[in-house]
Specification:
about 120 residues, alpha+beta, Alpha-Beta Plaits, four-stranded antiparallel β-sheet, two-stranded antiparallel sheet, 3 helices, 6 strands, about 35% strand
Length: about 120
């Protein structure tokens, strides 16, 4: 079963951290992906650009509406994700506890709905 581990943290607080701490968190995340790969649990992972680079797309009455920025009232932003294979929710939660971003924010764990008919990825 696939799970999306969505990493949330406060971008302003992260930017105020010294570069060494930021680098260490990234290094730990990369190490985790290699550990998950070795056990067959890794699917994909990536940090995201800051929320200020985002755009929101809505379609209303067949008209696309595009606005800059997330415009969501929240103290934490989505910082990145891990897509993993896990036997069940409990195993996915155990993996989420190993995500370095959980120490400075939170990790949302959500099972994917697997549907047929999608293109296969390599």
């Amino acid at each position: 079963m696939k799970f999306m581990l969505i990493v949330h943290h406060n971008e302003d607080a992260f930017e105020k951290m010294d570069k060494e701490t930021q680098s260490q968190l990234l290094t730990e995340s990369i190490e985790l992906t290699h550990q998950l790969h070795a056990t067959g649990q890794y699917v994909h992972a990536s940090p995201l650009q800051p929320a200020a680079t985002a755009v929101i797309v809505r379609v209303r009455e067949d008209t696309p509406l595009v606005t800059d920025g997330p415009f969501i009232e929240t103290r934490e932003q989505i910082a990145g994700y891990f897509l993993v294979n896990a036997r069940d929710l409990n195993e996915a939660i155990r993996i989420a506890t190993r995500v370095p971003g959980a120490r400075i924010g939170s990790v949302e764990v959500r099972p994917l709905i697997e549907i047929t008919g999608l293109p296969k990825t390599v």
